[in-house]
User: Fold tRNA modification GTPase MnmE from Victivallis vadensis.
Amino acid sequence: MNTFDNIAAPATGIGGAITILRLSGPDALAIGGRVWRSRTSLAEAPPRTMLLGKVGPDPALAVYMKAPASYTGDDVVELHCHGGAAAAEQALKLVLASGCRMAEPGEFTFRAFVNGKLDLVQAEAVGDVISAGSDMAFKLAEKQLAGALSSRLETLYEELNNLRAEAESHLDFPDEELAWEEGVPERIRAVENELKRLLATRGIGATLRDGVNLVIAGRPNAGKSSLLNRLLGMERAIVTSIPGTTRDTIEASTVLRGLPVRLTDTAGIRSSSDPIEQLGVERSRRSIEGAQVTFWLLDASGDELDLELAEMARHPAPGRIAVWNKLDLAPQRALPELDGPTVRISAKTGEGIEELLDAFAREAVDTPRPELPEVAVNARHARLLEEAAGLLPDAAAHFECGEFELAGLMLRDALHTVGEIIGKTVEPDILDNIFSRFCIGK
Assistant:
């Protein structure tokens, strides 16, 4: 992606009431003025003033944002047109015919990064804001877009740069006693510890960005679909007293304890000669294998408790929580004690659901009541943080032994690695990979 020509794309999804076309580049004002017409031209009006005019025959609003006070740091014009597919497509054709090319995915945010409006961590947070699957995920993304993680990484980058300079100064002045020498190894270890603290946030970060794959499994008629409906707060699955009503997996998205969840209700697992039911059972097994957390439902009111438990034992499941269901039908029944997390509920009445959600959150993020983290790193950050932290114990040891050249080299490598996280030293192919994940118009 270059940063010197004029680009345009819809910044909103086509089909809504309004479509916003975003233009960015050195000639955005002139191109916008050719496409959008009014008694007052865009060039005559103060920047950031919304004006009413037309794009072709269609009434449209326009606003000009003068560089560098814009999202991309370039001149930007936004045209707010009617959102019907035909109207938006016609407006975009006029813009492209007047001197813009179609923007590539993430190109507006790429320009914001190149022009210093955002660092790379903040640019990634733009994508996280757009894709956030829960209120907590959205709030975390907003915090990181505002610079919560970037500021901590910038502080570490500056300290590593100072430590590198101090190590290398011993090479320039080998015969002089330097006042800071005794404290340098401790400062290196302090940076290492802070890198590790940031690294420890990758679990909650991945969960909030990617969601939790939660599967409801068990024998037929254990109440799996009733639990699905209870968790969703709606009648998503058919519920009957006939075993085997669910023949296929049912998938839905929801939020539990603030975490985005991909919820899968599976067909009841049992031996069957019915070829259709066999296919459903096989799909259930595959769903269980791919789960992060599994609710294995057991019928607390049934006459085949041993069979229920034997079936569960035959199917080891990731993050399994044994769930005794239908307590409303057997409130006083003595149930076997089981190894591992176990919860007693009634999907019909809601009894025990809060305890079940606590158990779910413990399996997903090690706490029953997840709270919004201050920051959370993603997989790219974590890989680089681990690499940088791994260099620092030896850097401190070399400094203590007077091996200042080796210490300086390791500190320089750690500095480069942390710089890659925030975009100071990142390679072009890494940038292409990051921004290509964005949608067009962002």
User: Anything to note?
Assistant: The longest strand covers residues 58-65. Residues 185 and 396 are 5 Å apart (CA to CA). The longest helix spans residues 148-172. Confidence is low (pLDDT under 50) at residues 237-247.
